[in-house]
Amino acid sequence: MDSHRAVFLGTDCGATTSKTGGVWADGGVISRKLLQSSTKATSGTDAVVAGWVQGVRGFLMENKISWDQVSGAGLAIPGPYEGYGVLGRSANLPPEFEGWNFHKDYGTALDAAAGRHIPLVVGNDGRCGGIAEAQLARGDARAAVLMVAPGSGLGCAFIDANGLALEGDTLAGMECAHMPLPLHLLGARPLPCGCGRTWGCAEVYTTLSGLRFILEDHLVRFPDHELNTQKIDTREKVLSLRTRAQQGDALAKDVFDFQAKALGLHIASLSMALDPSFVVVGGGLMDPGATSEEFRERYLKVVRDTAFHYLWPTQRTRIKFVAAALGELSQAIGAALMARNSAKAKA
Fold first, then answer.
1. Which of 3, 133, 223, 239 is most buried, most CB within 10 Å of its CB?
2. Bond prior to 80 in cis (omega within 30° of 0)
3. 184-196 tens-digit pLDDT
C-alpha cells in the first residue's frame, strides 16, 4: 500500500450501529470489509461522537493508513435538520438530540484525534448511500438513479444524470421516508411513525421501525403460529423474522412480501416524480452477508412487480431495478465520496 496516497473517510451514523469506510483520491473504495460498532445513542451525543472517532481509528489501523493521509471526512446521519449540521427531530435518534450541532462536535473531535484540521462535510444518510450506489449502478452511463434502502429507517436518494444529489433548500429534499403510502392498496391501517405523523409514513411499512405492528397484524391471520404462544418479548419475535423467512416460514415470508409490496408502491410514486433510469434497492435485506440469494431474489421481484404495475409504459421498459452492491457500507462509502467531491469542487 502506498503510504502517501490521500484518503477520504466516511462515517455512517445509524440508529443502532455506526459504520466506517473510505475512498482513495481517485474514488476507489479502500475496503469493503464491514467495520461497525454500537451507536450508543442512549448514552448521549458525546458517546456517539467518541464512537465515531473510535471507528475511524480502527479503520485507519485496519488498512495501515496514517492520519497524515486523511484529506477530508464525511458524515452520513439521518435527518431532518434544522440547518447544515444541526439535527432536527429525527424519527431514528433520541428526541433529546434535537438541535444537536453534530457537525461542530464531530469536526472538533476529528481535529483533536488528527492533531490538525480535517475538513468535514455532512449529509443525509440515504443521500450518501445513493451517491455510492449510483456510481456503481450506472457505470459510465449518463443516467439518473433512485435509491431506497430500508433498514432501521428508510434511506432515500435521487442522484441526477450529472451525479448531483437532490438536497432541497434546507437539506430536507428526498426525506421520502415520511411521505404517505396508498394504504388502501396495501389493505393496511395507519400506523404511528417515530416522526410523529400518523398518515401512513412509508418508513413504518417498509423497515424495522414498524415491523412490530406488521407482525401483530399478520399474527391475527396465522392464529396457529408458534409466535402467538412463545413467551418471548416482541423485539425477539421481530428479530427472528428474517431467519424464519429464509427457512420457509409462511408467516415470515408473508411479512416481507408485504414490506416489499409497500416499497414497490413507494418506488412507483417516486418514479412518477423523478423518472430515474435505475432504481437501486439497498438496506440490510439486500445484503449478501445477511440474507440468502433466494430471499433477496424473492424480495426484489415483489418490489419490482408491484412498482411496474403503476409505472408509465415507457418506464416499464426503461427502468432497471438492481440490488445495492455495497450492502451496509453504502452510506459510509457515500459519505467519503461526498468529502472527496467537496474537496474537488474547492480545488
1. 133
2. yes
3. 999 999 999 988 9
